[in-house]
Amino acid sequence: MPHPPVLRGLDEVAQKLRAAGHEVVEVAPYDHQRAWDIAYPLYYATGGKEMKELLAATGEPWPAAAAKLSANPSLRELSARELYRYHAAQDDYRKGYLQHWLKTAELTSTGRPIDGLLCPINPCASYPHDFLTWWGYAALWSLIDYPSVQIPAGFVDKNKDVRDESYQPVNDLDRENYELYDPELWHNAPISVQLVGRQFEDERLLAVSAVVDQIVHPK
User: Fold this and answer.
1) Which of 6, 9, 30, 182 is a good FRET partner for 126, with 20 to 30 A between their CA atoms?
2) What are the E-state strand segments in the chain?
3) What range(s) does the Amidase domain occupy (predicted)?
4) Which residues pair with 151 in a beta bridge?
């Protein structure tokens, strides 16, 4: 779950777009857990053996965040057969996401799919050294080759972005992220949003992001 300032940043950008005459619709996530289950093994298809060999040669310790990541029991070298299956699953998920994107035409008044998808880039505005932050908001787009840009969306405000004490984390990772948030410590830290476009439409995404940036940061 994104921290309060990240959620506020998304809401404020959406409000500014609507006020400028743009249509903003809510799009449900498309099986993001499946995307992570495919992307994670592909990121570390060799089980991190190259890093282990380099660290063993130098005698240096593992960086704390990397050590935590490498301790995952599911992190191992994939066989050629397993790699083939993951690549096939990647292609299948990419096809499914394209259909999900095209189906947003049912949500818009124009009958055309959305021009861009506004979402978080990270669940938090900041985090301490050696903290293994959640990077699924970026890994998803790497998996399906969708371009994205980041747009500044303001700063953490300790008076507006208070902790949601009623929130119940869904798992240990979510709880660790939730407990990390300190509005006093992060006051005035910059926040940003992510704008995503479809595969092979990098130039179109840049044009859309220029419009969004102008609305969010009028000259």
Assistant:
1) 30
2) 117-119, 148-155, 190-196
3) 2-206
4) 193
Both tokens assigned to 25: 């619709």
Look at phi and psi of residue 114 and say left if phi exceeds 0, alpha if psi is from -120 to 50, else beta: beta
Domains along the chain with CATH numbers? 4-216 (3.90.1300.10)
Token pair for residue 150?
């980041």
Q: Give the strands of the sheet with 148-155, arranged side by side.
A: 117-119, 190-196, 148-155
Q: What is the pLDDT of residues 81-95, one digit of tens each?
A: 999 999 999 999 999
SS3 203: helix
Which tokens is 2 given? 């994104």
Return d(Cα 51, Cα 45) in angstroms, integer.
12
Is the separation of the CB atoms in 173 and 133 below 8 Å?
no
Find out whether 109 and 23 touch, Cβ atoms under 8 Å. yes
Q: Which helix (H) or strand (E) holds 31?
A: none
Q: d(Cα 156, Cα 124) in Å, to the nearest integer?
A: 10
3-state DSSP assignment of residue 77 = strand
Predicted pLDDT of residue 68: 83
133 sits in which H/E element: none
What's the pLDDT tens digit per position in 124-161?
998 898 888 888 999 999 999 999 999 999 999 999 99
Q: Tell me 71's DSSP state.
A: T
